[in-house]
Amino acid sequence: MQKNFVQFENVYKRYKMGEVTITAADGVTFSIDEGEFAVVVGLSGAGKTTVLNILGGIDNCDEGKIIVGGKDISRLTGKELASYRRYDIGFVFQFYNLIPNLTAKENVELATQICRDSMDPDKALESVGLSDRKNNFPAQLSGGEQQRVSIARALAKKPKLLLCDEPTGALDYNTGKTILKLLQNKCREDGMTVVLITHNSAITPMANRVINMRSGKVISNVVNPSPVSIDTIEW
Amino acid sequence: MKAIKKNIIREIQKTRSRFISILAIIAISTGFFTGVKAASPSMIKTGLEYFDNNNLMDLRLVSTVGFDDEDIKAIKASKYTVDVMPCYSSDLIISENNIDSVVRVYSIPEKTDTNDRIINEPVLLEGRMPSAEGECVMEDYYYKVTDCEIGDIIHFNEKDGDSDTTDVIKHTEYKIVGVVSTPLHITYQRGNTNKGSGSIAFYIMIPPDEFVSERYTNVYVTTTAGDLDVSPYSDEYKDLIEKQSKTYKTLAEERIGVFNSTTLSDAKKQLADAKTEYNNKKKEAEEKISDGEKKLRDGENELNEKLAEGEQKLKDSEKELNDGKAELEKSQKQYADEIDAAKNKLTDAENKYAQGKEQYTRSKYLYDTEMEKAQSQLDDAQREYDTQYSLFYGTTKPQAETKLTIVKAGIDICNETISKTQDSIKELEEYVTLEGDAEKTIQDLKDKLKEYQDKLSDYNKQYEDGQKQLSEGEKQLSDAGLKLADAKTEFQTKKEEASAQLNDAQIQLDQAQSQLDIGKLEYNTALTTGAMQLQAAQSKISEGEQQLKEAREELEKQKAAGLTALKESREKLTTGKTDAKVQLSEGETKIHDAEKSLEALNDAKWVIYDRDDTPGYSGLEEDAIRVDNIATVFPIFFLLVAALVCLTTMSRMVEERRTEIGTLKALGYSNISIAAKYFIYAAAAALAGSITGAAAGIATLPYIIVDTYSIMYSLPPTILVIPWSSFIFSAGTGILCTCTVAVLTCLSELKIKPATLMRPKSPKPGKRILLEYITPIWNRMKFTSKVTARNLFRYKARFLMTVIGVAGCTALIIGGLGLKDSIGVIADRQFKEITIYDQIYALSESGSAKEKEYLMSQFRKDKRFSEVMLVSQEWIKIEFGNKENIELRTVVGENDKQFRKMFILRDRLTHKPVELDNSGVVINERLSQVIGKGVGDKIKFTLNDKEYTCKITDLTENYAGNYMYMTPTFYEKLTGNETEYNVVYTQLSGDSLSYAHDIANEWMKNEDIVTVSLLKEQLDSITSTLDSLNVIVFVLIFCAGLLAVVVLYNLTNINISERVREIATIKVLGFYNLETANYIYRENMLLTFAGALCGLPLGKIFTTFIVREIQMDMVMFPQFVEPVSFVIGFILTIMFSLLVNFIMYFKMKKISMVESLKSIE
C-alpha cells in the first residue's frame, strides 16, 4: 500500500463573485495513503467539496500541488483531466446524477464503455446488490438504490480513487447506513481508496483517516488506527 | 419592485444569448414581413404620385377621323369632364441600315384654352424642351438603352406610305434636344401600330405646331372620377370610369352624327356629282371612239381590196417573166453544153497534136542520136578493122610464118634425130644381145627417143596450132571485113528508112496542125454566135424584170401610202382612246379615293380608352399585387415558425426559473408581479426585435424589390410607404406569442405550491421505447444509439419543435426555390410546349373570304414559314362571381390538323391530348379556376354584345393568358354566323428574332395585314416580368436561411440547457469534449434530418400554396419544383445545422461541471 497516495500541498482555490473573492481552499495540505477510507468533515462552506472537486479533476486549483499516485494533476490540461477522470476517478454524488433516461445497467454501461479495463456492468451491479433491479430506470428506484447504482457506476470503472460527496445526504438514516457500509466494505475487501466528505462527524469513527476542515483550511488530519464498523455507529 | 426590476435586467444580461435569439427571430420575421409588405404599396404609391403630379388623363379619346374644335368644345362641355387637352400623334417610319422602325411622334402636351392644367405632363430629365423648329425630345428608356445622344438627328423617311411625311409633320429631320418621360409610358412597352413591323420602337415629342394636320388625333380628358378620393386602381374608380366612359360614348355617337350630317354629307354630295359628270363624259368619249373605230375599219377594208388587185396583176407578170427566165436558163444550159462539147473536141485534137508533135520530136531526137551513135560505132569498127588488118598482115602473119618455119625446121630435125635414134636403137637392140651394158645405153636411147618423139609431137602440134591460128586470123579478118561492109550497108538502109519515116511524120504533123487551126476557128465562131444569142435573151429578161420591179414598187408605194394613212388614223384613234382612258381613270381614281376616304369617314368612330389601356399602367398594379401576395403568404409562414420557436424558448425559460418563482412566491410576491418579469422579458425582446427588424426590413427590402422593377418601369424615385398595419400585425404576433406563452407558463407554474416549486422539477423518468421491444434490432444497436433513440422519444416536445422548426425552414427555402422554378418554367412551357407559333398577323377587316384565301396561298408559298394557319380570334367577356368579369380570346382554327400543331391541348398532369369536338368548347385550366366552372358546366359569355351559352367539354393546360377554343363548325352552330378569320398564326423555319423581324417587315407591306406580333417579343416581356420576381425569391431564400440558423441555434440552445446536468455528469465520467458533443449532436442531427425530410413535402405543399396565391387571373404558374431544388433545400438546412452545431460546440465545452452539478442545498 502506497503511502501518501494522495497529497495536497498548499492548495488554494479562489472564486470571484463580483467584487468579492471567496477563498474556498486556503492553503490546503494533507495526504492520504492508498487503501485508506478517508473522511473529510467540516461545516457547510468549509471547502470540502472544493477539495473533492479539485481532487476529482472537475475543478482546478489556483495554487499548490495535488499528487495522486505519483502524478501531479494540478497542471493537467482539460483533455488530460478528462482522461484522469476517465481512468482514475470514481465519483459518487449526493444526488446520484444518474441519467434518467437510462436503466440502472445502462447507467453503469455509460461508464464502462469508455474505460479500457472495466468491470462487467452486471457484476458491478451485483456487487452493490442490485442484480434484480438492473433493468429499471432511476425513477423506478428508491434513493438508496439509486445511490447504489451510482456507486456501481463509479466502481465499474475500477478507479484508483473513489470520491463520494455526501453520498448519504439525501437518504434516510438506515439507507444511508447501508450505503456507508457498502463503501466501507469496498474499501476493506477490495482495498479501494475512498475519500468521503460529510458534514456528519458522527461517522468519523469508521474512517482510517479523518480530515477536519474549516473555512478552507485543514485544521486536523488524524489517522484512526482502529476504525469501527459502521454497524456499531449510531447517530 | 426595485429588486424585481433589477432582477429583470440581470436576467437579460445573464441570458443574453437567449434574449438576443428571441430578438433575432422576431426581428427577422417582422423585418421580412414589413419589408416585403412595404414594397407593393411603395410601388403603387410611387406610380400614383407620378400620375397625380403629372396629371395623367382619365380617358383618352381617339377618332378615326380626328377631332375638330367643335368636338373639343362638346367634350369639354360633357358633364364629367374636368379638363380636356387635344393633341396629335402619328406613327412614322425611320430607316436605319435597311431596317424600318416605327417611331411614335407625340405633340408635347401644352396648355390650351380648354384646360387648366397640362394633362400627361412630361418630365424633362435631361437637356431642354424644343424651342425652335425641327427640334424634338426623346423618350428616356430608348435613350438609356441605346447609344443615342442629345444633339442626334432623327431622319424620317420622305414617304409615309402613299403620302409624304411632310403631309403629317413639318420636317423630316428632328434634332434631339432633351430627354423626357411621360406618365403615358411607364414601361418600355410601346404598344402596337399598323405600320412597319407592327411594333413601335420609341417615341419622341415635338411641339404641336409642328403637326400639319388640322384635326386633332387624340383628346386627353380628366374626369370627375379623378377627383374621387380613392386610388385609381380601386374598383370604385374603375366602375366610375366605366360608367363615365359610357357618357362619352353617347357623346361620340352624337358628334359622329354631326360629322356625318355636315362634313360627310357634303362630301357625299360632291362625290355623287362628280360621279354623274364622270359617267357623262365617259359615255361621250366612248361614242366618239366607236365612230372613229368604224371609219378606220372601212378605210382598212378598201385599202386591202385595192392592194389585193395590184397584187394579183403583179403576180401574173411575175409568172410570165419567170417562164421566160426558165427558157433562157434552158438555152443557156444547151449553149453551155454545146460549147463544152466543142471545147472538149478541140481540146482532144490539141492534145493529140501535142502528143504527135512530142512523139515526132522524140523520134527525131532518137533518130539523130542513134544515127550519130551508129555512125561513130561504124567509124570505130572501120578504124579497128584497119588496125587489125595492118597488124595481122604487117606483124602477126610474118612472125607466125617465121615461127612456123622454125617449127618446120625443128620438126625436121626431130624426124631426123628420131629416125637416127630408131636406127641407133635397132642397132643397139641387136647389139644388146651382145652386151649388157649396151642394154642400158639402149634404154637411155630409147628414153631419148621417146623424148624427142614427144618434142616432135609438140612441135607438130605447135605448128598445126600456128597454122590454124593464122588461118583463123585470116578468116576472122575477112569476116570482120564482111561484117563491116554489112553494117555499112545496113546503116545506110536504116538511115534512109528512118529519114523517110520522119518525113512522113512531119507531113502528118503539118496536116494535123492545119486541121486544128480550122477547128479552132470554127469553135470560136460558134462561141461568139451562141453568146450573142444568149445575150439577147438575157437582156430581154432583164427588161421584163425591171418592169416587174417597177410595178411592184409602185404597188408597194401605194400600199405604204394606204397603210400610213390607216395607221395615222388608227394612231389618232388610239391617242384619243388613251387620252380618254387616262382622263377617265383619273376621274375614276379621284372618285375611288373620294369614295375610300368617304368610306373611312363613313366608319367614323371614336374609341375611348381608359388608363388600363395605357401600356404598363395595369401591369404596375398586377406586379404590385404579385409582390404583395408573396409578401403575405411567405412572411406569415415565417412568423409562424418564429412564434413557435419563441414559444418554446419562453416556456423553457420559465421552467428553468422554477425555483426562483417558488422563492418569490414564498416571499409573498403576487402572481402578477412574478409573471411580470417574464412578460417584460418577452415583451422587451419581441418589441426590440420587431422595431429593429422592421426598421432594417423597411430600409432595405422595398428598395431592392422596387429597384428590380425599375428595370421595367420608368418611374420617379421610389416613395416609401410604411406598412403600419403589417408592422403592427407582425410585431403584434411576435410580441403576443412570446408574452402570452411566458405569462401562461409562468401562471401554470404558479399554481404549484412554492415548496414544490423550490425543489427542482423531478427529471422526466426514463421510459422504454417501442423499439426496445423489437429485440433483434435493439440488441444490435450500439449503446450510444440506444441512448440517442431513447432520448429522442423522451423529449417529445423538443423533438416536435425541432422537427417542425427545421421542416419550416426547409419548406421556406424550397418554397423560394420552387417559386423560382415555377416562374422560370412558364415561358418555356407556354411557348415551347403549348402554344407553338412565332408570329401573329392581324388581317384587315375588309378582306373578303376569297382575298383571304389568296393571301393564305401567298403565305403558304413563302417557304420561310413552316406552318401557316388562319384563325378567328375574338374577345369575349365572361361574368363570374359578384359581377366581376374577365376578358379573354376565343380561338377558332380553320384547319384542325394545323390547329393541333400550334395549340397543344392537353391535360396538365397526364399530358393526355384533350379532344375538341363540335359539342362544346375547351377552356384553359386557369380560366376554369377563375370563373369556377368545370367540365360539363355551362358557360355564359358575351361576344359582340350578344350573349351565348355553351358547354365546357374539357380543360386544357395553359399558363399565360386565357383562351376558349372551339371548332369552326361549333362556332357557326353557336353564333349562327360564318367564322370570320381575322388573324394568321405562323411558325417559322428559322429561329432568330431578326429573322422573324425581317419576315414581319416584308409582310407588313401587304395591304391586307394590319399588325404583326412576334412571339419572341412577347416572350421577352413575360420573361423579364417574371425575372424580377427572382429578386424576391432570393430575398426570401436568404431570410429563410437566416431564420433556419436562428431557429436551430435556439433549439440546440434549449436542448443543451435542459440537459446541462446530464452533460456535466458524462463529463465527470470522463467523456472527452468531442464525445460529449456527439452525445448531444447525434440527436440534433437526427432531428434536423427528420425535420429537413419533413420539410421536403411541406416545401412542395408550400410552393403549391404560394404559387396559387400569387397567380393572377391571366397567368397560371405550373407549381413545379425541380428535384435539384429539393436537394438544395435539404442540403442548405443540413449545412445551417452543422454551422449551428459548430457554434454550439464551444458553448458545450464551456459547461462547468462544478456549477452544473452543484448540489441543490
Architecture overview:
The complex is a heterodimer of chains A (235) and B (1161). With 235 residues, chain A is of the alpha/beta class. Chain A has one domain (6-226): Rossmann fold (3-Layer(aba) Sandwich), CATH 3.40.50.300. In chain A, 29% of the residues lie in helices and 29% in strands. Chain A has 6 helices and 10 strands, in the order βββαββαβαααβαβββ. Chain A has helices spanning 48-56, 78-88, 104-112, 121-127, 143-156, 173-190, and strands spanning 6-17, 20-32, 37-42, 63-68, 71-72, 89-92, 161-165, 193-198, 209-214, 217-223. Chain A has a 6-stranded mixed sheet with strand order 6-7-8-3-9-10. In chain A, a hairpin with a 2-residue loop joins strand 1 (6-17) and strand 2 (20-32). In chain A, helix 3 (104-112) runs parallel beside helix 5 and helix 5 packs parallel to helix 6. Chain A is globular. Chain A starts with 5 loop residues before the first strand and ends in a 12-residue tail after the last strand. By secondary structure, chain B is an alpha+beta fold. Chain B has 5 domains: 1-53 and 618-760, no CATH class; 57-227, no CATH class; 254-599, Helix Hairpins; 777-827 and 1015-1161, no CATH class; 845-1007, no CATH class. Chain B has 24 helices and 22 strands. In chain B, strands 3, 4, 5, 6, 7, 10 and 11 form a 7-stranded mixed sheet that branches. Chain B has a 6-stranded mixed barrel with strand order 15-16-20-17-19-18, surrounded by 4 helices. In chain B, a hairpin with a 2-residue loop joins strand 8 and strand 9. Chain B is elongated and about 230 Å long. Chain B starts with a helix and ends with a helix. The mean pLDDT of chain B is 83.
